[in-house]
Amino acid sequence: MALQTPNYFDEFDRIRTHAAPYDPQKDYSLIVEQLTESCGEFEYLGISPQNLVEPAELLPVILVQYPEGLRTFINPKILKRKGKRFQGDACGNIYLMKDGKKVCPFVFLTRPRSLLLGYTALDGSYQEEWFVDTLGKDSTDQSPVGITCHEIEHLRGLLIVDNARERMINLFAMLAEMVAQHPEVEAGLTQAALSRMPTVLIRKGDEYILQHAVECKDDIPEVGPDALFFDGAGSSYEEITQLKVPRGGELLPIRLSKLLTEALS
């Protein structure tokens, strides 16, 4: 039976754990088999051991679906990056629930358009290979190149929500600096900055509150099971409140903050 993916809200420590260092004497065939089986059964576009529950070992191996087929990379390292493309990125570990089905929030971030990857192949040989994004520069879809970056980040315990939180911190810092230099355009600068801010899902007791970034500007929580940063999980805030958070064997409700409620009314 294929191994499931850990839940961000219940198994956060596992998906934060770094992969073990590469050992050229180790047999990686079992983890490759486990990753391949789960990738096939659940139709993942990419997968790392952090996407598998125990007993899978957290080893430096990823699989990515490229046009020519599923590729296996042992101990992958990005040697060079070229170009940039803004794209929506989602993660199998991070999901909300609706009518028994998983809904994965997405985060907008910048990925390279091509990369030079160094890795060990299944036969134990070291390889270096260029991979090129074939999607149009205006597309915001995930590409195999972006997915490769995503899975390599998993090996270091990094998540797309880390990117969203960092963007929020940087935008607030940039806004403060620009307004200090040009106070006459504060309103326009503020509106532009806020439009690029993620929303934040924060636990309050037995429910989660969906907040606008500005509501936690002075006390930004750490990424974790009680705080999720993302750009969208539906076409509207109201649609997000129809989702549930899978936590501790329960499905906890989501409601809008007072600010978002007043803004929508």
**What top-tier CATH class of the largest domain fits best?**
Alpha Beta
Largest sheet: 5 strands, antiparallel
The fourth-level CATH homologous superfamily of the largest domain is: Peptide deformylase
Strand order of the largest sheet: 1-2-3-8-9
How much of the sequence lies in strands comes to 25-35%
Overall number of strands: 14
Measured between the Cα atoms of the first and last residue, the distance is: 48 Å
Helix percentage: 25-40%
CATH architectural arrangement of the largest domain: Alpha-Beta Complex
* Average pLDDT figure: 92
Shape call: globular
Number of separate structural domains: 2
Output the helix-strand order.
HHEEEEEEEEEHHHEEEHEEH
> Total helix count?
7
What do we call the CATH topology of the largest domain?
Answer: Peptide Deformylase
Uncertain ranges: none
Name the structural class: alpha+beta
Based on CA atoms alone, the radius of gyration comes out at: 20 Å
Structure in words:
- The structure is a single chain.
- It contains seven helices and 14 strands.
- A hairpin with a 2-residue loop joins strand 5 (96-98) and strand 6.
- The mean pLDDT is 92.
- The radius of gyration is 20 Å and the shape is globular.
- The relative contact order is 0.14.
- The strands form four sheets. It has a five-stranded antiparallel beta sheet. A five-stranded mixed beta sheet has the order 12-10-11-14-13.
- It has helices spanning 12-16, 29-42, 144-155, 160-181, 186-194, 237-240, 258-264, and strands at 46-47, 61-66, 69-82, 85-90, 96-98, 101-103, 106-111, 114-120, 126-132, 199-204, 207-212, 227-230, 244-247, 250-256.
- By secondary structure, it is of the alpha+beta class.
- The protein has two domains: 12-158, Alpha-Beta Complex (Peptide Deformylase), CATH 3.90.45.10; 161-264, no CATH class.
